């Protein structure tokens, strides 16, 4: 039974209903003060499945399906939107939703480029939008435990953090071949592509391969990097980002399209010599200090450390370590209070910049010097031009 009166519920529209969108939607449905009233996706099958999920939950048939996001954004009765499309849509849709007066919970990576992120930050500020990036680890009790251990001084002065991204889907074993085919009638492929350059429809490209296609995404660094970089910045407690980036990567030589790295190693150094390292070891974060280290698995939440003394006496919450609820609750409470969520626009931009600069360092195959305050590369015109990408008409921020 619902314990919140209908008039007190936050009315939510959902745009993007692939596996991730459906998963996050299922967690929003668990919140008694949320009423999901509309679902939108380029694929008919996905939006119909989402409507069934929503109607089953509320015991009615009131949820409306849309193929085009404009119909969601023009509804005056919708307070907020969950955006869980492909990466290329996150920034554009966030800005369109802000202009339409909606608050936003947006999945990451929230932009394809550095410039797109800055435009999003400015837009949210201009419209007073409550915007939360889906970097749920920031509200996760497992990572809060790591924060508590480090801030209790148990590993001494924090000097380095290693971000291990794990193997990344198809990229680890070879790229799927993209065979052009007619797009299905029930799938709006042109809209699915969004701002990205036109390319022929392919069943593989429109389902799995988009995450390793540079025109559509940013690969593993953009996917996992912002999660981990934000945790490192939060625990470190300082806003400034890294200034020196170097690294190596391997790209599939037989790739028939614009691939992202399938192997990588990156070193990002801050002005005070604090260092972020990125690799393809099993998904985890390791924190090194001058008196010890602690490591948390991002697969099962298990913790390793240099000695038992590191965690002795620091309380660890018993709840499941990988949870969505605290992050969603933070967003919903901010919708009501108009406060800034824990992973608001500036926090998200700082974390994503680390990932975007690392990606460009590997793509250009040379070290880069970065000015985090001005969001510009030092002495590198080519890299500076790559801070933005042109968008396919009619989409823009």
What do you see in this structure?
The structure is a single chain. Helix content is 32%, strand content 18%. It has 397 residues and is an alpha/beta fold. Helix 4 packs parallel to helix 5, helix 5 (114-127) packs antiparallel against helix 10 and helix 8 (219-236) crosses helix 10. 44% of the residues are buried. Residues 170-174 have low confidence and may be disordered.
Order of helices and strands: EHEHEHEHEHEHEHHEEEEEEHHEEH
Broad shape = globular
- Annotation, overall tally of beta strands: 15
The assigned structural class equals alpha/beta
Strand content: 15-25%
| Span of the ends, CA to CA | 41 Å
Question: What oligomerization state is this entry in?
Answer: single chain
| Major sheet summary line | 9 strands, mixed
Extract low-pLDDT stretches.
Answer: 170-174
- Within the largest sheet, what's the order of strands? 13-12-11-7-10-9-8-14-15
What is the CA-based Rg, rounded?
A: 21 Å
How many DSSP H or I helices?
A: 11
Helicity, in percent?
A: 25-40%
**Mean model confidence by pLDDT:** 92
């Amino acid at each position: 039974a619902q314990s919140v009166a209908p008039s007190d519920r936050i009315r939510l529209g959902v745009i993007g209903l692939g596996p991730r969108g459906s998963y996050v939607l299922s967690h929003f449905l668990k919140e008694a003060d949320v009423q999901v009233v509309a679902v939108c996706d380029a694929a008919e099958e996905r939006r119909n499945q989402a409507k069934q999920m929503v109607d089953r939950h509320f015991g009615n048939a009131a949820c409306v399906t849309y193929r085009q996001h404009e119909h969601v954004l023009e509804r005056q009765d919708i307070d907020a939107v969950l955006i869980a499309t492909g990466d290329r849509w996150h920034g554009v849709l966030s800005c369109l939703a802000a202009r339409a007066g909606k608050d936003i919970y947006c999945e990451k990576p929230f932009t394809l480029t550095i410039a797109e992120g800055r435009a999003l930050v400015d837009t949210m500020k201009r419209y007073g939008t409550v915007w939360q990036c889906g970097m749920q680890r920031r509200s996760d009790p497992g990572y809060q435990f790591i924060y508590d251990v480090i801030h209790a001084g148990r590993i001494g002065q924090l000097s380095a953090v290693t971000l291990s991204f794990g193997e990344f889907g198809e990229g680890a074993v070879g790229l799927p071949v993209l065979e052009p085919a007619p797009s299905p009638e029930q799938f709006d492929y042109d809209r699915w592509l969004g701002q990205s350059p036109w390319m022929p429809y392919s069943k593989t490209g429109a389902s799995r391969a988009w995450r390793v296609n540079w025109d559509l995404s940013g690969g593993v660094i953009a996917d996992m990097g912002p999660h981990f970089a934000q945790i490192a910045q939060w625990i470190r407690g300082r806003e400034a980002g890294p200034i020196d980036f170097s690294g190596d990567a391997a790209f599939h030589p037989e790739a028939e399209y614009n691939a992202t790295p399938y192997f990588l190693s990156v070193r990002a150094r801050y002005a005070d010599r604090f260092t972020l390292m990125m690799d393809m070891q099993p998904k985890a974060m390791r924190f090194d200090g001058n008196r010890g280290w602690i490591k948390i698995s991002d697969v099962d939440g298990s913790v390793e450390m240099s000695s038992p003394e590191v965690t002795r006496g620091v309380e660890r919450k018993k709840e499941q370590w990988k949870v969505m609820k605290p992050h969603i609750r933070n967003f919903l409470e901010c919708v009501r209070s108009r406060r800034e969520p824990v992973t608001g626009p500036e926090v998200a931009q700082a974390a994503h910049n680390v990932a975007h600069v690392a990606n460009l360092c590997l793509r250009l195959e040379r070290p880069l010097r970065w000015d985090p305050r001005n969001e510009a590369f030092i002495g590198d015109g080519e890299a500076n031009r790559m801070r933005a990408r042109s968008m396919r008409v009619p989409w823009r921020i």
